[in-house]
Design goal:
This protein is α+β, with helices and mostly antiparallel strands and 400 residues long. 31% of the residues lie in helices and 29% in strands. The protein has 2 domains: 272 residues, L-amino peptidase D-ALA esterase/amidase (4-Layer Sandwich); 116 residues, ArgJ beta chain, C-terminal domain (Ubiquitin-like (UB roll)). It contains 10 helices and 17 strands. The protein is globular and about 65 Å long.
């Protein structure tokens, strides 16, 4: 498997994208509508938010995925179309019908995704104008991919994309993707939109299981602020242009899992690194837990602790905050068997402080916290970021 430099959602054959400005974002000239088009009916699958106030586009996609005949994905930023009642449902239907007319398919073959402010009806005149312009700008070049990546951003400071190539029996296939996410990021789908393409052929149901498995190790293992949004969506499309046919137990399954995981892991890390106001990534690795679930509980408790996040921002190796979070995680832990490292420095060993100085690793771009509970073989990892003054400013000034 090889990472594709400057790879994108278009690194997989069989897809095209277009982006345009509909006028939903305040920033002048910024695109805010994007369209992904498949060149033939395509396997599609998705994973979505666990929030009970799921947005209208999420509910639409849940009804129609998995599917063997997806033809397009329409995306807008600047407005979530969440908590908008029956009008929101009608607007999603109208969006799907518009794209269906443009690409020549049924509305049910169109996926819809939105991100942005909650509780405001979609300005459909702007959405429709932007989508029509996006369709006119459809293409397969790098500039097309970069424009689409910018179009789906909200408080993101940079676009997020990744792609890899792999091979099965001498046949090359590709996996590519783009994502947005910066704030309201938490496990159980994080708060984000992500779109993944592959030119391998994967049946819709199998694609969903591959996607679920990879998300469990990537998008469901990141957190910025512990908030799960109304619009979280990951949509995967498998067009089959490479001629590589992947089934869960057949040839190529391991290669496809590795490629999908690599792309989604890169996108997940990019989201955390671009967390609102973030200056550092926090990587919490837990070993020696009773089981994997217990390891994840501990890792998430430490990664989401506001005290830990503030300490990381301040470069303060306050291991007491880490131990405190381990203790309230709800997992089975034994103080006398617990050991904590910050970077390479052991600061807490078998229930007692070591007195070692861990200030130096706190200045790294990625602060690694390694915890060994010493009671089993469970392992887990959660990535987070520091909590800064800039995060407070961004969210205090977010429009309502």
């Amino acid at each position: 498997m090889d990472i594709i430099p400057d790879g994108s959602i278009l690194s997989a054959a069989g897809f095209a994208v277009g982006a345009a400005r509909g006028g939903l974002k305040k920033a002048a000239g910024e695109p805010d509508v994007a369209l992904v088009v498949c060149d033939a009916p395509t396997s599609g699958a998705g994973l979505f938010t666990v929030n009970r106030f799921a947005a209208a586009p999420v509910q639409w996609c849940r009804r129609h995925l998995p599917s063997p005949r997806v033809r397009a994905v329409a995306v807008n930023s600047g407005n979530a179309n969440a908590c908008t009642g029956e009008q929101g449902d009608r607007d999603v239907q109208r969006t799907a019908e518009l794209i269906a007319d443009l690409v020549g398919c049924a509305p049910e073959d169109v996926c819809v995704a939105s991100t942005g402010i909650i509780g405001h009806p979609l300005p459909m005149d702007k959405i429709e104008a932007g989508l029509r312009e996006s369709h006119l700008r459809i293409g397969t070049g790098e500039a097309h991919a970069r424009a689409a990546e910018r179009a789906i951003m909200t408080t993101d400071t940079r676009p997020k994309a990744a792609a890899v190539r792999s091979a099965v029996d001498g046949r090359t296939f590709h996996v590519g993707g783009m994502a947005k996410g910066s704030g309201m990021i938490a496990p159980n789908m994080a708060t984000m939109l992500a779109f993944v393409t592959t030119d391998a052929l994967v049946a819709p149901g199998d694609l969903r299981e591959f996607l679920r498995e990879a998300a469990g190790q990537t998008f469901n293992r990141i957190t910025v602020d512990g908030d799960s949004s109304t619009n979280d969506s990951v949509i995967a499309l498998a067009g089959g242009r490479s001629g590589v046919n992947v089934t869960p137990d057949g040839p190529g399954a391991a290669e496809f899992r590795q490629a999908l995981l690599a792309v989604m892991d890169s996108l997940a890390l990019q989201i955390v690194r671009d967390g609102e106001g973030a200056t550092k990534v926090i990587e919490v690795i837990v070993e020696g837990a009773a089981d994997a679930d217990s390891a994840h509980r501990v890792a998430r408790a430490v990664a989401e602790s506001q005290l830990v996040k503030c300490a990381v921002y301040g470069c303060d190796p306050n291991w007491g905050r880490i131990v405190c979070a381990i203790g309230y995680s709800g997992a089975a832990v034994q103080p006398h068997t617990t050991t904590v490292h910050i970077g390479p420095v052991c600061v807490f060993h078998n229930g007692m402080p070591t007195g070692a100085d861990a200030r130096a690793p706190m200045h790294a771009d990625t602060v690694a916290v390694r915890i060994n509970l010493g009671i089993g073989f469970g392992r887990g990892r959660v990535r987070s970021c520091d909590l800064t003054r800039e995060y407070v400013r961004i969210n205090a000034e977010y429009p309502t």
